[in-house]
Amino acid sequence: FGRRDADYLAGLNEEQRDAVLSLEGPLLVLAGAGTGKTRVLTTRIAHILTTRKARGSEILSVTFTNKAAREMKERIAKLVGASVEGMPWLGTFHSIGARILRRHAELVDLKSDFTILDTDDQIRLIKQLLQVENIDEKRWPARQFAGMMDNWKNRGLLPKDVSPADSGFFANGKGQKLYADYQARLKTLNAADFGDLLLECIRLFRENPEVLAEYHRRFRYMLVDEYQDSNVAQYLWLRLLAQGKPAAEANICVVGDDDQSIYGWRGAEVDNILRFEKDFPGARVIKLERNYRSTANILKAASHLIAFNEGRLGKTLQTDVAEAGDPIAVTSVWDSEEEARSIGEELEQIQRRGENLNDAAILVRASFQMREFEERFITLGLNYRVIGGPRFYERKEIRDALAYLRLVAQPADDLAFERIINTPKRGLGDSTVKILFDAARHQRQPLLATVRMLLETEELKPKQRTTLRNLVAQFDDWAERLRTIPHFELAEQILDESGYTAMWQNDKSPDSPGRLENLKELVRSMEEFETLGGFLEHIALVMDRATGDDGDAVSIMTLHSAKGLEFNNVFLPGWEEGLFPHQRSLDESGRAGLEEERRLAYVGITRARKRALISVAQNRRIHGLWQSAIPSRFLDELPADAVEVKDTGSSYGGYGYGGGAASRFNKADPFDSVYETPGWKRAQAQQASRKGGGPMTIEGDLVARSVDLGGSSSAYTFGDRVLHLKFGYGTVSGVEGNKLTIDFEKAGRKRVLDSFIKRG
Ligand code: ATP
Ligand code: MG
User: Fold this and answer.
1) What is the 3-state secondary structure (H, E, C) of 575-623?
2) What's the complex ipTM?
3) 517 tagged catalytic
4) pTM
5) Which InterPro entries match (predicted)?
6) Which residues constitute the domain of residue 728?
7) Would the annotation count 760 as a binding residue?
């Protein structure tokens, strides 16, 4: 190799070098966290390009996230400079699948500009199909079916491949037909859902050997990162692309770590990695054992913990970092609020030491944990970003729930009303909503007030009227109850009574349990405020905060989305039984579930370069109740000599800290000390400045408004001949404000709203 080549190979150890240089034939790199697997892939691409073994467009490289793809592109550009022609096909399975599909769209009955549906679109479509088939959506929820289809698609099954045993129970045997109808409907809409991006690609390859042959020729080198988390469809897709040529020409290199397989719950099959040598006879296997990321203590802790798993291939890991480094810090805190405060303090110290916040991350087990951190950081003015998902208050389920609460507090909030009128589905279709909007615009009244008006007329079909009457009655009832019960209790009741909670309970997609947890967390967070008005005010201020993503900021993300990343300081909050390991994983899949949780813990610890800080709350709200939390069993699985327990008043191993810690913090009740954030104070000040203060005025406002409505008068009088959009011609026989009684020539006597008629 020339001088330039030596540059990028120079820093590698012998095995890494071997892995980079073994370009021909199948290769599996099986190695633990931080051993340079991703680095090997990047260097390999650089090597292929600089030695001109292939052009960029002849390389296919699959990453696990789009972020990883971007980073890899940057690293390659740095390694080989801008001189090399054509960038590799570098992206996630889905993004590459989409790219291929667009090139051959017509072969899978699509046009190249097909749209990719999001989950909401998908659900809407399924609901239409259920209606056509006369399937009761209450019994057979669309979301459940979406989950089933997702599962089939992850397993590479087309409608014809779905066995009756798989689909039989749904809608009494209609599952397979629904799936087929759904796929057909997507074609007429020129659309594909996420799962199709691979599934349709597989079909394309199977049904069109000449197309597959083209890709066989094109992709001379294939590389796959995080192979342990590939699912069946991804595996089939890869195998189609890589097999069918002589084994020696199957230049496929996959890298992975069985100990980091954390997507089993989404259909990932760690077996794919075990099967590699069988699928590609003559495959080379290279192991990397030197970890370049973490200090000895961090590595020791992670290795000790993962050794408790039975189902593993077993690997050795040695640190290449000279220092033992800080021990893993385990801090016991009173509750999640104190946890956020203590991590906030640590972050400020990190800043004082001159380190960047960019080099710190908080890795949570469940997204609901994020809220407390977000609020604390906003209070502190500490920059943060949420990776791999929206900020807490921007999540769909939180926005929906807030819309209900806003409407109770402020009946004129039309945006809130729009959001919830048909969420959950109430059979109020687009045409009903349009009538409502038209009327509201004409009357210059808020939507909810307009509904009240329309209910006294026959503009809407009886069924819709009943639905709306019930909805309005519910809102009146909730507004009334707000006077007598705490707002957070009311919030819970609203979510239950509106059917919103049930909507997610019936949802069988993998993210719905997380959404339910977020809703509970929302209700919990309301307890920190004295009134609903105060709470909503706080939210408005929090949401308003600029969401600029640049600059120095601590990252908050789930453990799942932290895969492949590294940070100097890693915070691991919430190590309590039921949260981590998560109850769901224990309930559903027993030992396998527990082992996957343990791998998640391993992924978490091994993200840290210098410091890993675990925290355990002594009290956590689970299912709406404060409970003394039991420290995670994973804490007992850490080696004592690599761990330092930070809280002197408690010992996580002995479980006997409860009383001691409680007296130390001297709080009889965890609610005692929560009223101290500036946000809360701001809200309180605003409350006080409002005449009468709080929801009572708002309630008064509602009453005042409906009186006002009756008072507004109409431009029509008795005997006017008019034309109604729906009922045709008629004569006004009564006027009451803006509501008219009209004797229609065809439809008979009806009560209508004056905004829906013209002079005839
Ligand atoms: P994970 O399993 O977490 O995805 P990985 O095996 O992909 O980890 P990398 O992210 O490639 O590991 O590497 C971990 C860190 O070690 C990176 O910062 C990388 O730059 C560094 N590293 C890898 N190999 C070497 C080396 N030979 N010399 C110095 N640093 C290295
Ligand atoms: Mg990696």
Assistant:
1) CECEECCEHHHHHHHHHHHHHHHHHHHHHHHCCEEEEEEEEEECEEEEC
2) 0.99
3) no
4) 0.72
5) DExx_box_DNA_helicase_dom_sf, DNA_helicase_UvrD-like_C, DNA_helicase_UvrD/REP, P-loop_NTPase, UvrD-like_ATP-bd
6) 721-759
7) no
